[in-house]
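This part of the workshop introduces the protein records we will be handling. As an example, a complete record with its sequence and its structure tokens follows.
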Amino acid sequence: MFTPTGRARLREELIAAARCDDDVVGAALVGSAATGREDAWSDIDLVLQIARDVDPDTVAARWTERLYERGAVDHLDVIAGGVLYRVFLLASTLQVDLSFWPEDTFRGTEPGFELLFGTPQPATTPKDPDTGHLIGMGWLHALHARSAIARSRPWQAVMMLDQLRDQVLALACARHGLNPHHGREADRLAEPLLDALGKARAGAVNGAELARSHRALLEVFADEVTGHDPTLASRLAAPLRELAALPEH
């Protein structure tokens, strides 16, 4: 397990390396370290601004070698808005997130953005979640959960019910002005909702219990849809009742 001291040491090493890299013209910290919320479980989030005439992928390849020399065992790439986010897992279980931004796009995109050096573009705010999409994914997962239970595919049903619960949590966070991404602020939701979701979790992987979980989750989902869009909730009421009518096994 990594320690806060070791994490801080590695972060300072990476910042120093960024300052010495001719292809890196700016850098910033994001995440908990930039907002004063760092704790023993926090990772390292470093944003790099890549010089205009340099290929970010070339810089990423060089930095990847550096991270493997410092104990990385694997990495995962996420591309968002034309930016490469490379997420490293170190042997110590420390997560290191490096993002490689073309010079003209380097900017803050979340509340925490601690500029270390360089010239960022004006900051932007995160887009509000598309609640219509969340609702649509909710009833879609409910449909697949029903068919999985009916077909005696319990583990597929477990996955679909988990996905349905995730949509409910994201909808609830969005409705209350909380961060809906990756459950980051889900624990700040009201206790009655969290209690209902807890009771809706299946206690066993069998048809009867999965069907009960399905019905309970649909009730919470219907309430969330009503909170966002009463008109849509009215249109969905009949099919949601039909989905909830799945007989117990």
